């Protein structure tokens, strides 16, 4: 089993593409946009016909990514940068072997009013499927 997990790779890849912080599940209090929040929404083992002992299991996880920014166009630009960095990625990161990354969808989220702010924060929501060996 790998010691590097998809969440670690995902955070690093998002931060490099978005040029802002990415946080799993929660954002620290007082964090100003832009930032990205992400989390795993599901996971399943993919069936294979080969039952050779010691053969790695392929796991596919679904990950939600939410981009928060002060402006609508800024949120869309960050979302596009993340899409370009993640989609169709395949390769090894540490001892983690990623077979593929696909984007399952993207949509505008409802703007939110963060604590103490008069202007809305714009949100873009993305869903990715990541397949890796376990």
Compact summary:
This protein has 134 residues and is α+β, with helices and mostly antiparallel strands. It has helices spanning 6-18, 72-86; strands at 22-24, 35-45, 58-69, 91-93, 96-108, 122-133.
Can you tell me about this structure?
The protein is of the alpha+beta class and 134 residues long. The protein has one domain: STM4215-like. The chain is 21% helix and 40% strand. It contains two helices and six strands. A hairpin with a 2-residue loop joins β4 (91-93) and β5 (96-108). The longest helix is centred in the middle third of the chain and has 15 residues, at 72-86.
CATH secondary-structure class: Alpha Beta
Number of strands: 6
The low-pLDDT segments are none
**Termini distance?**
5 Å
Element-by-element helix/strand order: HEEEHEEE
Compute the average pLDDT.
91
Name the overall outline: elongated
What is the CATH topology assignment? STM4215-like
Output the keywords.
single chain; 134 residues; alpha+beta; STM4215-like; 2 helices; 21% helix; 40% strand; elongated
List the helices and strands and how they pair.
Elements: H1 6-18, E1 22-24, E2 35-45, E3 58-69, H2 72-86, E4 91-93, E5 96-108, E6 122-133
Parallel strand pairs: 1-2
Antiparallel strand pairs: 2-3, 3-6, 4-5, 5-6
Helix pairs in contact: 1-2
């Amino acid at each position: 089993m790998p010691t590097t997990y998809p969440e670690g790779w995902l955070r690093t890849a998002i931060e490099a593409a978005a040029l802002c912080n990415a946080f799993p599940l929660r954002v620290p209090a007082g964090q100003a946009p832009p930032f990205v929040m992400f989390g795993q929404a599901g996971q399943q083992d993919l069936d294979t016909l080969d039952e050779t002992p010691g053969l790695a299991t392929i796991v596919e996880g679904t990950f939600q990514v939410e981009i928060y920014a002060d402006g609508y166009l800024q949120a869309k630009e960050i979302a596009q940068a993340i899409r370009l960095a993640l989609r169709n990625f395949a390769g090894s990161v540490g001892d983690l072997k990623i077979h593929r990354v696909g984007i399952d969808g993207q949509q505008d989220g409802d703007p939110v009013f963060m604590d103490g702010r008069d202007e809305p924060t714009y949100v873009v929501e993305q869903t990715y499927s990541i397949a890796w060996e376990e």
